[in-house]
Each structure stands twice: as C-alpha cells, then as structure tokens.
C-alpha cells in the first residue's frame, strides 16, 4: 500500500513538473514573439529564455507555430464537445449558437478575443495565418465525425460533413470578424455586441436547413 501511495505521488509530481515546463516554454515564447515578431524568433532563443534544451521545446511543441497558438486541442474540440453535451431537445445548431453567445459574453480568447498585440502578431506572420487555417479545418473534421456518430449516419452519408462545413463556416467567419474588429481598435465590449448580432443573423440563416438536424432525443 505504501509503495502504491509513493508511486502515485511521484507520478503526480512528474505530471505537475511537465505541465510547469510546458507553461514556462509557452510563456517565454509568447513574450519573445510579442516583442520581436513570430518570424524573428528562433526555437533556440525560446529554449534559452525558458532555460531548457532545444530538444525539450520541440518535444512539447513539435511545430514552432504551436508555441504561439497553444490552443489547438481546445479550439478543435470545442464545437464537437458542445454538440456531444447538448441538452435533450436541442439541435446541433442551437447548441453551437448557445455556446458561442456564452463565449462572446466572456470575451473568450478561443473565439478570437486575443487583444490587438497578439492579433497583430498572428496576422503579420504567414506561417501563423496558415496554421490557424489548419485549426479551422481540423475542427470541421472533428465536428463532422461527431455529427455522424450522434446521428447514426452511414459511412458514405455526406450530410454530417455538409452540416459541419456550414456550422464551422459560421464560426470561422465570426472568428475572423472578431480579429478584424480587434485590429481596428475596438474594445472587447464593442466587439462583443457586434459579433453577437452577427452570430444571431448567421445562425438564423442556417435554421431552415439545420434547425431540426441532430436533435438530442
């Protein structure tokens, strides 16, 4: 029993140390990127700032872009998770609209409320813009898989993919609008009011096609 307790404690300490190392690397990388621009900072410089080996950085972040966009898993999984956890009687469309408006009210960075300095850093780097595009593509595939599972669709049924394209397309448009308004100098409160209205219009436009799709029974 004692050895099991010690083993669990050691495992917990290792996990905590890994988490702290990852956060330290991410924080130092973000600081350098914001100061000098993403394309002007090397992995070696991030490693030196975080006081770790270069290999340690690449073990935690195989791609340099993910040092700046350290939200891939949460960003990709969020729409699919929202659909998986929708309430009885709620459609996929209604769940995503509800979740998005709640995120707007919280000025959630995952939907684009990153602040002007961070937003400018991303938009000034073709590599980060391309990586962000991949994020959107990945979340579309994740949502399509969830919709197929939730509706019991056959493998060759194209409808889950069609629905995912439309739903993620709206979320992508709203993300872009949030970033655009951020770069134009609007504060978060103004941006939230604008994109919340955009969201109501955009999701309502999908209502005729998807209003009764993937309703939880």
UniProtKB/TrEMBL annotation:
InterPro entries: Homeodomain-like_sf, HTH-type_TetR-like_transc_reg, HTH_TetR, MftR_C. Residues 42-61 bind DNA. One of its GO terms (molecular function) is DNA-binding transcription factor activity. Keywords: DNA-binding, Transcription, Transcription regulation. Residues 19-79 form the HTH tetR-type domain. Gene3D superfamilies: Homeodomain-like, Tetracycline Repressor, domain 2. This is Transcriptional regulator, TetR family.
């Amino acid at each position: 029993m004692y050895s099991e307790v010690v083993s669990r404690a050691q495992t917990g300490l290792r996990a905590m140390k890994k988490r702290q190392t990852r956060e330290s690397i991410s924080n130092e990388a973000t600081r350098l990127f914001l100061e000098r621009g993403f394309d002007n900072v090397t992995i070696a410089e991030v490693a030196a700032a975080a006081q770790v080996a270069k290999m340690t950085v690449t073990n935690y972040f195989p791609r340099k872009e993910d040092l700046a966009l350290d939200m891939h898993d949460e960003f990709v999984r969020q729409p699919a998770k929202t659909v998986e956890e929708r309430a009885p009687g709620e459609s996929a469309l209604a769940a995503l609209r509800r979740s998005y408006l709640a995120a707007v009210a919280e000025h959630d960075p995952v939907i684009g409320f990153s602040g002007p300095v961070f937003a400018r850093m991303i938009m000034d780097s073709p590599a980060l813009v391309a990586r962000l595009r991949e994020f959107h593509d990945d979340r579309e595939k994740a949502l399509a898989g969830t919709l197929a599972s939730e509706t019991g669709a056959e493998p060759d049924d194209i409808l889950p993919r069609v629905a995912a394209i439309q739903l993620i397309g709206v979320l992508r448009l709203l993300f872009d609008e949030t970033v655009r308004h951020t770069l134009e100098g609007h504060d978060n409160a103004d941006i939230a009011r604008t994109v919340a209205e955009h969201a109501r219009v955009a999701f309502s436009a999908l209502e005729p096609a998807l209003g009764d799709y993937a309703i939880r029974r």
